[in-house]
Structures are given as structure tokens and as C-alpha cells.
């Protein structure tokens, strides 16, 4: 009995040293690969995300074309990120093979990128070209709130922030006034407070008193100013409403951003968003958006994205521009008497449309069946959709060769297809399961 007691005591005493040795061995294993994209599997995934303070993980599938194009960009970025003062590692895992890991982190399309900060995952929505990806990821290791003590510090901060995120600068504000929100919305914006600045800076940022919270969208050349009250509710409302610009075009990237916004979407469908007529209307939409911050204003050109526009019962015969209110999911609303926007006095027509919606003069509709595939792709992943299409096609061919009619219950399970593109993939009317590379 005493021997057993002594043995257990020795195990308990030595256990911390054994665990520490194992942890050190794991760190050395990953350190050898520093500057390279680490290949993970189910056996070392948890160890990797716990050993690195910051690690970007690429959940990929070998058959995915976009994954293959992304790989060399990650290789280039890994070399640069490993040499940062606060290094960021990059790893990848075949989530199609290691489905348990993919399922744990909700992977429904490839490639999906997630950055793990001290083991906590956040989906990465940024650019995927090596140089832009590096700039984007630096944000995650930056302070939650940058404290700026001079005009030059402000300029350097804005320059380093780049154009991928909105930028908030609190002039004459204590950092505690926004620190909570800087943590909460860190993945979506830069936050800073300017302690010392000149009249020239006030003129440049177009504010005439302090404290003032300035929100800038470099990509859209937009800026707004908040003068208070600086109570928590009002500050957060302003930040939430300023995370998106006044108006923005519908793209795959902006669709992802809209998922994080709870406001209803006022969608304007144009014939061609690049022509002068449409640009004039977008300016009017910006004015309406400024006065109605409880909505998100977006637009799309039928020429630019026909499949998306068709989801709202728009065709080549539809009189455009047309406005609808969209819930960001499967329902939208048309306003009675505002089916389209005439060329004359468009500002008044926009106002009439918004008021008609608020008054409840609406007809509720659902997106058309074509876009239903988009939602399926978003929920279960393009790979699964491709499997279904592939299996059905094989069964139909077999049945045609046999000369027998296709009946319910004749489907057989098939192997995973190659990266050939199905008709459903080619259309992609709303969202994609196999995620597109972002060009920034």
C-alpha cells in the first residue's frame, strides 16, 4: 500500500514537468516550420492553435480551384508574417478529409480562413493577395485603441491602417470612452484617440469642436462626425451605423459584411451601375442614407450581377431603377405605388418609397427560386451541392442506358467529384460555398 502511495506521489510531482516537456516539444516542432505554412491534421490542430498567440488557418479542400490559387499567396505571406515583432503564423488543414475539425468550426465552403487569437477563432473576411493579407492581419496584433499624440502620429496611423477597414478617431476623447467597443468591433474597424493635434488637423478632418468622434471610409471617400452625447448607448449606435458606408455596391464581399448588420437593406437595382444616370442616382441615395441611418443602402447593376437581380423578380423587361427593402435573407418588400424610379425628381421618389415602407404600404415577397440555390450553397457548401448534382447526373445516365424510367429511391452514393463546375456553381446568384478570391 505504501509503495502505491509513493508511486502516485511521484507521478503527481513529476506530472507538471512531463506536461511542460511535451508542450516545449510541440513548440519546437512548430518552430522548425516558422515562416512556412504549417500542414495540420486532427492530431496536432488543437496543439497548434494553443501554442501560437495568432495563427491564420486555411480550411481547404484539395479539389477546390480557389484553394489552389490561394495557396501560393499564403506561402508568400507566411514568410513576412513570421518576421513581425508580434509574429503571425499561417497553417492549413484539409477540412474535407478531417471533417471533425471542419464541423467543429462550422466550415461550409472552401477556402474558409479563420484567425485564432489566443485560441479564439474569428472568420477572416479580408483580402487574399499576399501583400494586402499581411497589412490586413497586422490589425489583429495592433492595440485595441491606438493613442496618438501628434499630427504626424495621426497621419502615420491612418496610412498604416490602409483602406480595408473603416477608421474611427476620437479627438479629445479618453480611450476608455471607446475601448469597450474597440474590443467588440475589432475585426471590423480601426480605433484610435488623438490626445494632441493642431488646428490644421481639425480643418483637415472637418470638425470644429471637441470631443468629436470621426468615422472615415477610405475606400468610399466618406466621413461622418459624432459630437455626442458620449454615453455608451449613443456611442455604440453611432459606431454600428458607421461600420458600413452610406451606400455600397453589392458584391460577394459586401454580402458577407451585410450578414453582420441587423438593419433592413434598401436595395436599388440599376441597369448599369457604371453609367452616368446610375451614378447620379447613387448620389441621391447617399443623401437619403445620411438621413435614414436605421437602414443600409445598397445598389446593384443588372449588367454587373444579373443573377442576383433576378432573385428579386427583375428581368431584362423590368423597368429600372427599382427599389425594394430586403431582410438580408429570403424575404423582401415592395412598396405600393413605387415599383420603379422615374428620371424626374428622383430624390422625392426615394423619400416617398422610404415613407411608404415605414407606413406599412408594402407587399411581402420571397426571393425567387433561382436564388434558393444560393442559400443552399451558403448553408451546406458548394462541395455538397456538387456531389448531389454529380450523383443525380450519374443515375440519370445509368437509367438512360438501361432504357428504364428514373424512379424515386434509385439514387446511389458516389465518390467526391473533381473540381469540375456544375451549372449551379456557374450561376451563383446570391452566395457561394466555394469562396471566391478577393481582389483588393
TrEMBL record:
It holds the Pfam family Thioredoxin_6. Keywords: Disulfide bond, Membrane, Redox-active center, Signal, Transmembrane, Transmembrane helix. The chain crosses the membrane at residues 372-398. CDD domains: PDI_a_family. One of its GO terms (biological process) is protein folding. Belongs to the protein disulfide isomerase family. PROSITE patterns: THIOREDOXIN_1 (PS00194), THIOREDOXIN_2 (PS51352). GO terms for molecular function: protein disulfide isomerase activity. This is Thioredoxin domain-containing protein. Residues 1-21 form the signal peptide. The keyword Transport does not apply. GO terms for cellular component: endoplasmic reticulum. It comes from Solanum pinnatisectum (tansyleaf nightshade). It comes from the Eukaryota. Residues 18-142 form the Thioredoxin domain.
